Amino acid sequence: MKDVYVGIIGLGNVGSGALTILNKNAEQISQKLGFNLRVAAVCSRSVATKEPEGIPADALRTTDWREVIAHPKVDVIAELVGGTTVAREIIDGAIAAGKSIITANKELMALEGAEIWDRAIKARINLAMEASVAGGIPIHAVLREGISGDRVVALAGILNGTSNYILTEMERRGESFDKILGEAQALGYAEADPTADVDGYDARSKLALLSALAFGERITPSDIYVEGIRRITTLDFDYAHQLGHTIRLVCSAEQTPKGLLLSVRPALIPQTAILAGVRGAYNAVWVKGQFGQDTFYYGRGAGPNPTGVAVVSDLMRVAREINSGSPERVSPFAHERLGEYQPVSITLQHRPYYLRFRVDDRPGIIAQLAGILASKQIGLEAVLQLPSDTKDNLPFVITVEPSSEQAIREAVAEMSQLDFLREPPLALPMEPPL
Description:
It contains 14 helices and 18 strands. By secondary structure, it is an alpha/beta fold. The protein has 3 domains: 4-135 and 304-336, Rossmann fold, CATH 3.40.50.720; 139-300, Dihydrodipicolinate Reductase, domain 2, CATH 3.30.360.10; 349-429, Alpha-Beta Plaits.
């Protein structure tokens, strides 16, 4: 079989990691494929001034991605620049040139991946995107092929390593959100602008992709309810522990009689749940099938080497298909065609809830709050108050029996008008054991 040549566009963490693996693992890759996977061209803004490890001496080095696509030897393009502007142009250019595409771009694939795949099929090329979700965890391959014979009824996961690092370090050390965020930025886990991570948008794009694979529906990220972790405090972990729970940013997809419920939000999960043990910058995905029941996937969610492995594995898969000459391949979305998702409001979700308050203490507060809950047909489960030295800004927690999100929202809105509250109540769902 003939050698397959790769053009890599983008030499940041992921691109550099993939390049290193292609270089250091070249012999084993060739043994597995039966032919060589060679780098013919690389593109980055700094390629002229820096010398990333693993660029072959005869490879084209350029700052213009168009030269990589136009290179006559290049068979497959690795788009590793991210974002939705230049990346879209690169993918469009590769399709027009009849060259297969590997991408780690969760944002673009979540927004336009199904449409891009349709165009790739018509151009008789392939599209692979394993590295777009959960770094070194081959969750796409699991949903696309590994458990494709099952019918997925629910999945839940921790899909943002930055948020998970912040929450688990807050829990472990009792330090504030702001302090741990600063440390995460210094360590390179969080960007200077952490919005995408701590406000849940990065995880939302990943959930949109996994839900498309799992349920066969064309998910628009903006249809997914999202809530970040900025309001979580060390005090919330103290109360969660009193309840036998911890707090994680949970990505959830659940098939219900009314449709698919999707959310990204901080939630209380039992300390005995398997997701509760996911700490630091790790990711994990739990999948429940109708017939195969529970499976669980765990590993590093980011980083040059874990994500680089995903990129190289995709390159190997596509290289095999290029050499086999087969236009019939498994869709990266696991389904021949995706159905149109009809958004189901998260207000239909039914869960127990954790309600945390900060108040100026006075007689009758609990009775007043309980009255509002009763008016919304919400049953009070327990009241918790840890020792406090102050009567001003006094924290306490109420847990309630399983209730609809709609009822909880109405109760929180009414409670927020009470003059003894220092801030609106924090409402977190309490997830069942996973």
